[in-house]
Amino acid sequence: MAGHTPKSIAAFANLKNLCEEHLAGRYRIEVIDLLQNPQLAAGDQIVAIPTLVRKLPAPLRKIVGDLRNTERTLVGLNLRPQVEAGKADA
Amino acid sequence: MAKNAIRAKIYDSKLPKAPTGIHGLDEITQGGLPAGRPTLVCGGAGCGKTLLAMEFLVRGIVEQGEPGVFVAFEETAEELTQNVRSLGFELDDLIRQKKLVVDYVRVERSEIEETGDYDLEGLFIRIGHAIDSIGARRVVLDTMEVLFSGLSNVAILRAELRRLFRWLKDKEVTAVITGERGEGGLTRHGLEEYVSDCVILLDHRVINEISTRRLRVLKYRGTAHGTNEYPFLIDDQGIGVLPITSLGLTNTVSDERIPSGIARLDTMLKGGGYYRGSTILVSGTAGSGKSSMAAHFVQAACRRGERCLYFAFEESPGQIVRNMRSIGIDLGPFVKKDLLRIHAARVDQFGLEMHLAMIHKLVSQVEPDVVVVDPISSLGRCDQTAATASMLTRLIDFLKMRSVTTFLTCLTSGASAELERTHTDISSLVDTWLLLRDLEQSGERNRGMYILKSRGMGHSNQIREFLLTDRGVELSDVYLGDEGVLTGSARQAQEAREKAAALLREQSIDGKRRGLDRKREALEARIVALRKEFEAEEEEMRRILAEERTREEVLRADRERMGVRRKADTTNGRAAQAQRREMAHEKIAARGEGEAGRNDHRRRRVGAAAVRGGAHAKIHRRLRQPQESV
């Protein structure tokens, strides 16, 4: 995220809820404020804000937006099979 | 005063510009891209957008000292570095010197899931960070539209792009944004909506199977700019745009004459050659010696130490040098000394405008005194005639502006009606027009040359026979007779005939002279013979006289003896005898006088005879004395 914008705050709250619900005790969230560490944006190929990056386990996944749609976020994080798109690798 | 103030104000308020350093582009845009504002460069695939943008950055760093940021959406920094290395740009060095940042922004749709609201602040931060890290003044975004394929929320993207361009303006960086040409508009995603200060359009067109790159400044807010389509080149030195237009007839003229390399031709062009900076056209049919004349001119120029640029569209440099050696013109040393640069290119290699661009570029580089284009007619092959004429007009104008003496050759078709018009209808543009034509006669083909026109100088109106010898071109008089113009062996035959006739005349005079000599000899021989005859006659006469005298003596002696015998009176007898003798002498003298009146010659002789006659008288007296003493 870049500063404490409403979108960033909303995204963090949504993520926290989701993790507590589905991954209680098995997750670690690192918050990077690009305003303070702008050089990190290039490393993780961040364009949009806010962006959630799932680094581990591989493969790397990115979810942009305020994560208001829990279903899509879970699909994006490969935590739930994406039935509609036929994704079966969860 | 007021006027000056206004002018000063206009000057001050002039849009600040960032020179691109790209050959020609700054001339079209009258100084460069708008400084501190974004410029959109759009065009189809492979038309040179990325290259133009990169050259803008690199030249900004090298020539203007303005650091730059290249935000690449399509290629990685390594790929970019490799791609532009062939153009002489070493990105690694610039990056190490902290003058350039290449940031590769990867937006991969398969990796990204979108949920809910977001913005592109991440991109802003990245660009902002790159700009701040080196204090960049120039930014390139190549190609933004990749964002549209990576992210699906077009509404957000559009809003963010608008914000991005505003933001770039606020940061006062000069930005170049490239965009793919779209079907409906200039770019596929309507980037031109946001970038409204300057739009440059690149084009890569194929006409008659020959591709030409063109550049056009579509829009440039707040400044005048060239609006035409300009061809541009991409070569080992990057992009070169060629703003070649008819610049008008304001070139300075020179009174200096430069020799054509053919002495006789210089005489024909009264005053000794072409004007410096003029345009010379030699037209003629195939094999009539156009290139040879060009070679003569080049040789003469190189000998003066002038630089020559030879554009050959039909032969390779080696071939030209070899062929010209066969007529005794060795261009090799001049090529070695770099006085002569031969640039050979096939006409079909690229489009007409590209040829012009190439000539333009080389001329700017080499700065020659003499340019040869051999032949211009082949240029007409790769495009429509109207386009060729326009291209050549611009070429001639361009060279004239630079006071370059231009030597053009033009191949014309054989028909005589066609001879006096060139393929490309540029005859009105040239200053001196020499025409080489075939003179076909008595089963052979010879070359004739005449000056069709030569502006600003008197010139011969004579047709000269044009001979290619192993000592180069020679011009000789043609024979003008009852049967018209005679050339080649017909001329030689005529000359031989004339020579024979002259010989014959000489011989007859000789003969007459000899006849006269013989006559004189004969006459003198006759004179000698006559003299001999006369002498013989004279001898005869003397003999007769002598005989007569002897007889008389004898007679007298006999008489005296008879007198003695008869005892005659001696005294009387003697007196009568003396009287008789005197009378006989007088008679002989009178006869001599009569004969002398006829002829001087004889008179002299007779005179002598008379003298001798006197002698006779003496003898006579001597003969007489002993008798008296008796």
Any overview of this molecule?
With 90 residues, chain A is α+β, with helices and mostly antiparallel strands. Chain A has helices spanning 6-22, 39-43, 70-76, and strands spanning 51-54, 61-64. Chain A has a two-stranded antiparallel sheet with strand order 1-2. In chain A, strand 1 (51-54) and strand 2 (61-64) form a beta hairpin. The longest helix of chain A has 17 residues, at 6-22. Chain A starts with 5 loop residues before the first helix and ends in a 14-residue tail after the last helix. The model of chain A is unreliable at 82-90 (pLDDT under 50). Chain B is of the alpha/beta class and 630 residues long. Chain B has 18 helices and 25 strands. The termini of chain B are far apart. The model of chain B is unreliable at 1-12 (pLDDT under 50). Chains A and B meet through helix 1, helix 2, strand 2 and helix 3 of A and strand 6 and helix 6 of B.
Task: Give the arrangement of secondary structure elements.
The complex is a heterodimer of chains A (90) and B (630).
Chain A: H1 6-22, H2 39-43, E1 51-54, E2 61-64, H3 70-76
Antiparallel strand pairs in A: 1-2
Chain B: H1 2-13, E1 17-18, H2 25-28, E2 33-34, E3 38-43, H3 49-64, E4 68-72, H4 77-85, H5 91-96, E5 100-104, E6 112-114, H6 121-134, E7 138-142, H7 146-150, H8 154-170, E8 174-180, E9 198-207, E10 210-220, E11 229-235, E12 238-241, E13 257-258, H9 263-268, E14 274-275, E15 279-284, H10 290-303, E16 308-312, H11 317-325, H12 332-336, E17 340-344, H13 352-366, E18 370-374, H14 385-401, E19 405-411, H15 416-419, E20 432-441, E21 444-454, E22 464-469, E23 472-477, E24 479-481, E25 484-486, H16 488-566, H17 570-596, H18 600-629
Helix pairs in contact in B: 13-14, 17-18
